[in-house]
Design a protein that fits this description.
Layout (H helix, E strand, L loop, with lengths): L11 H5 L17 H8 L2 E9 L4 E6 L4 E6 L6 E7 L2 E5 L2 H7 L9 E3 L7 E8 L12 E4 L7 H8 L7 H13 L3 H4 L7 E9 L6 E4 L8 E6 L3 E7 L19 E8 L22
Antiparallel strand pairs: 1-13, 2-12, 3-11, 3-13, 4-5, 4-9, 4-12, 6-7, 7-11, 8-9, 9-10
The protein binds zinc ion.
Length: about 280
């Protein structure tokens, strides 16, 4: 891309010196009630488990008020996560708004928001064993909402080959199996993901999306509290730890474990799921 075709104006330095303002008043968001979620986590009872094979995806249901744990098992592996309202696939995870409201990478206390016109927390991150990582010297962080799933269309453009086990295809097959439809008929439901365990950022000089080997190790996990009834789909990315490549069969890949729990905590008796967004939807007319 051609850059800097125009000379700087004389007041360029002054224009660049304006203060950076956090765009959204995140203090107005629903408060993260750590005591509540810690009480929930203290009394978990297993409900069901799913193992996601390497270079494949599986769906799983998480009823409202339940907790889902996504774990690294046999080796470092990143996962591409989609979330829907279990009863309405039109309501789904909105990575862009989640990024605007929280950050490029999410961790404990952050919400995973749904798309408009629903726009509400679908889930809350309640535990993240990689929260120690923070941001590294390259600007890389964990669990990003800046990239999207690897997909066969981009791969076709860049490499001129058809590869069928990108996360987009894996998620499409998994949702197709869940709905008893063909992948082609459900792939429009596949959306921008939460890149679980993935280490990514933007290069300092050119602001290009980069990935580096994930620090995840077997035993690490990310836990989400379902704020409403959820259908999830998780793909074990063909990139493995995404330290070298993706969209091919050349990288070691490992399964991911999905465990769903209910909580016997007494605080759950007071809890109720959140309503969809209260905006009137009249848009000025
Ligand atoms: Zn992928």
């Amino acid at each position: 891309m051609q850059k800097h075709a125009h000379t700087e104006p004389s007041d360029a330095k002054e224009r660049r010196s304006k203060p950076a303002i956090i765009s959204y008043g995140v203090n107005q968001l629903p408060r993260y009630d750590r005591a509540f979620y810690d009480a929930v986590l203290a009394e978990l009872v297993p409900v069901h488990s799913v193992t996601v094979p390497p270079r494949d995806a599986k769906t799983f249901e998480v009823p409202a008020g339940h907790v889902v744990r996504i774990s690294s098992v046999d080796g470092p592996q990143v996962g591409d996560l989609n979330l829907w309202n279990m009863h309405n696939l039109e309501e789904r995870f909105f990575s862009g708004k989640t990024r605007q409201l929280h950050a490029t990478h999410v961790s404990t206390g952050d919400r995973l928001w749904s798309n408009m016109p629903y726009l509400r927390p679908l889930a809350t991150i309640v535990c993240d064993t990689l929260d120690w990582y923070g941001f590294d010297e390259d600007g890389g962080g964990i669990h990003d909402v800046i990239g999207t799933r690897c997909d066969p269309y981009t791969n076709h453009v860049l490499n001129g080959v058809d590869y069928h086990f990108c996360c987009h295809s894996n998620l499409s097959r998994a949702l197709a199996d869940h709905l008893n439809l063909k992948p082609q008929d459900v792939e429009h439901h596949i959306h921008d993901v939460l890149n679980v365990f993935m280490c990514t950022g933007f290069t300092r000089d050119t602001q290009q999306y980069f990935m580096k080997a994930s620090p995840v190790r077997p035993g690490d996990y990310l836990e989400l509290f379902a704020e409403t009834d959820l259908l999830g789909a998780l793909s074990a990315c063909p990139g493995g730890d995404c330290g070298s490549s993706h969209s091919d069969d050349s990288t070691p890949c490992y399964p991911l474990q999905v465990d769903v729990y209910r909580s016997n905590a007494s605080v759950m008796q007071e809890w109720s799921e959140g309503a969809v967004n209260g905006y009137s939807r009249t848009h000025g007319r």
